[in-house]
Amino acid sequence: MSALRVYVEGIGLWSPQLADFATLRALLAGTTPPAPPPRPAAAVLPPNERRRAPESVLLAVEVAGQAVAMSGRDAASLACVFASAHGDQAITDYMCATLAQAPAELSPTRFHNSVHNAAVGYWTIATGCHAPSTAICARRASFGAGLLEAAGQVLAEQRPVLLACSDIAGSGPLGEVSDCRQPFGCALVLAPQAGAATLARLDFDLQPGADAIDTPLPEPLAGWRGGNPSAAALPLLALLAGRGGRCRLAAAATLGLVIDMERVA
User: Fold this and answer.
1) Taking the model in full, what pTM does it have?
2) Which helix (H) or strand (E) holds 92?
């Protein structure tokens, strides 16, 4: 099949080591960037919502806001795809423990925030967005699946699309199963044509056999990918922070994406 082609206009990133995409570039250039604040700022949210929102929402909204700000797009008009392998593991762990020990004490508010599309709900309400929104989960292939979904919407609808992918650290027995050890989130604004805000061009090819995909990462990123499923985005982010090249990402259990990236700006 012919390659799918989209253009990157904005990039967002947050982890305990990196506050944004600029700090990733600095790190790969050999500079030690300052540590980010202990929690994502998520400045897009109104103050009251920001205080009440769980960590999973703050992380997703922070990286989405960074990417949209870099692109110069109006968040209210952007279709969006939010992906996560595990959703809010802290709340899920709380609910499982509460249901096992004292079911009548389950918090309706925390249950409300446990649903997989909570982050995209907060985002669309805060930004006044009435464009289509999608929430995706594909375990450790969630970033690749979200990227494929977002690129498909870009090309089918000929409109820009925001992709955000994030996971927080696990806790309790659930954390032992998920082995998700630290938060990580990233976001891209993708467009169907090159324009003044274009940063890079991405060409996708679909290939079977995702289980064999293991794109090497430059130091000091090499050990980060195993600590969070959303960090599967790191090979692509590293290319975007450099001069380009090729990487392979899982998009499903038996489907991979081969991505050729070329810098435009």
Assistant:
1) 0.93
2) helix 89-101
